[in-house]
Amino acid sequence: MGTGLDSVVMNHTDQANREKHLVALSSVVAAILLTSLKLLVGIVTGSLGILSEAAHSGLDLVASAVTLIAVRIASYPADSLHTYGHGKVENLSALFETLLLLATCVWIIYEAIQRLFFRNVDVALNIWAFIIVIVAIAVDFTRSRALFRVATKYGSQALEADALHFSTDIWSSLVVLGGLVCVLVSRITHIEWLSKADAVAALGVSGIVVVVSFQLGRRTITALLDGVPASLRDQLIQVARVEGVSEVTRLRVRQSGPEAFVDVCLSVMRDMSLVRAHDIAAKAEEAVRKVVPGADVTVHIDPGRSEHEDIVTTVHVLAGEHSLGAHGVRIYNIGGRRELELHLEVNELLSLEEAHNKATAFESELRKAIPHLSTIVTHMEPSGDGAAIRNAISAHGMAVMAAIQSLPRQLGLECSPHNVNIRKVGDELTVSFHVLLDAKMSVAEVHTFTEHAEQLLRAAVPDIARVVIHTEPNEKTDS
Question: What domains can be seen in the chain, in order of their start residue?
Fold first, then answer.
């Protein structure tokens, strides 16, 4: 079953890599064609607008080649050196592309200013100048759509940057085409200022490229620095606070090419069971993946203390932190003083000195956690297999049976004692039995009943060392 699923995932990954490589390769081929044609026509006509487009396409060629290499490297799986994979290579290629675009703009702007104010350059117009620009618009339109489609489908930042780059080529080519038309009109109408339109068109191309370059550069640097939009962070914090989570203490998001990694730290009540905490982590992970599909999500659970945590919970939690067990917790409020008594379970293999040191350390932590405790009294009991296992033999105790059967009369409550077990451990008797009680009774009332029953049994049969009473709801009274 798992092998089949792995095979499907691998096939999907292979298909994605092939499709991304193919569209990146086609972009390189298109860039070679356009660069060659624009350079040839620009040299023949002397049009700065076309030459600037040729330079732009030349950089498109370099950028496309870098993108092709980046997409290939980004598809490599994670290894011991690159634990998050190689997706950041796509961001680096986008940054390199941005720097190339800005360098081109500097040259084009310089040359345009020279032609506008310091020297005249005759632009030789012919049909090929118009044809090459129109062809460039058609090719760039087809190429940008193909790149956007694959980039969106597989979440490739390198292809998205390439697509954004080539979509601006369409607008810049339209600006150059307008400049050539103005030069042509100048020749026909002898309006001198229109002859400068080619240089103005070159400035227009540069302006578009500068704007897009800064946008692309900002996004690339943000990705390289693992920047996260505030809206996305707030949304992830909100969805990660599933039922049972007290607080989202930390959230980190890392984008590595098409892969996203999300680390979340959740605070839950510290007395929560491991199974419950795991269930909360699974639900939070699922909620995060709905916001960031396909993300690699890691959820860390931190135990936290609520300001509403009760004293008994605090005692149990602190005892667990000291590898101790606690039960029989009692809090007495006497004349404005608060006294605490409890049974403390310690390892039976410890010496008295070692056990006392552990109990003292536990009591010290308890005083810090629960202020205004005037007294803490702990009764130590052994824990472990040796303390739990006893060799016993069945015993027949007529006095014990008689005392149990008299309980309903003495307590004034019908409880139907049954399943009585009497055992002998050494010289001591242990007794266990079941009783039926009103299903509507509270746990506190049930506990009071069992305490009274135990006292009556010990008074009737002093040899009883241990009494265990199992209470069950009486179905006849549960109505």
Answer: 2-224 (1.20.1510.10), 230-304 (3.30.70.1350), 311-388 (3.30.70.1350), 393-474 (3.30.70.1350)
